[in-house]
Amino acid sequence: MIRLLSILALLTLSGCKEELAQDTTPLPLSVEAVGHFCQMSVFEHDGPKAQAHLGGLTQMPLFFSQVRDVVAYTRLPEQTHEVLAIWVNDMGAQGVTWSDPGTTNWIAADAAHFVVGSRVLGGMGTPEIVPFADVTKANSFAVKNGGQVMRLAQIPDAAVLAPVIVDGDSDDADFEERLRKLARTSGD
User: Fold this and answer.
1) Residue 134's beta-bridge partner residues?
2) Alpha carbons 43 and 36: distance in angstroms, whole number
3) Which of 9, 11, 126, 183 has a 20 to 30 Å separation from 77 between CA atoms?
4) Higher-confidence position of 166 and 136
5) What is the pLDDT of residue 58?
6) Is 112 in contact with 137 (CB distance < 8 Å)?
7) CA pair distance 85, 120, nearest whole angstrom
8) Which domains does the chain have, with CATH numbers?
9) Which range (71-80, 95-104, 112-121, 176-185) has the least confidence?
């Protein structure tokens, strides 16, 4: 009898362990989705979006207003949770446009083909990394907009972590000169 109870207990525990596997199915974009870094509605920004499912945060993925941001997030030392899955909009899906990248056309980031270094800007006004399920569509986009087609692991850190200089931004020398002027005027 004790042996039977032990076997039943083990079977129950092994069943519980399987139930603890976290669901990382992508969620459709909704008005409640806000960008992790900017805390703004993802619908306020053009271009592809992303979501990352983290260990321990069941069906509460982090949403990103740009694909570039999710790649950066995974490479930041401050990132503390295990990343279980990353989903990105397939910009080659039927009916997708830059202003309407879709709400359910998710592809796994590790299966996507990304155009890196193109002329297009993402939702936050910085260079975007544009995902496609079909490498032919990615190559076609790169021919039209510049950039190179890469897989997720090939994207260089500089493409997502380096400071972005947008037209009109000042260079370091100009910034230092403005600081010197500010110090002189505030000391008067």
Assistant:
1) none
2) 13
3) 126
4) 136
5) 84
6) no
7) 26
8) 24-162 (3.30.70.2060)
9) 176-185
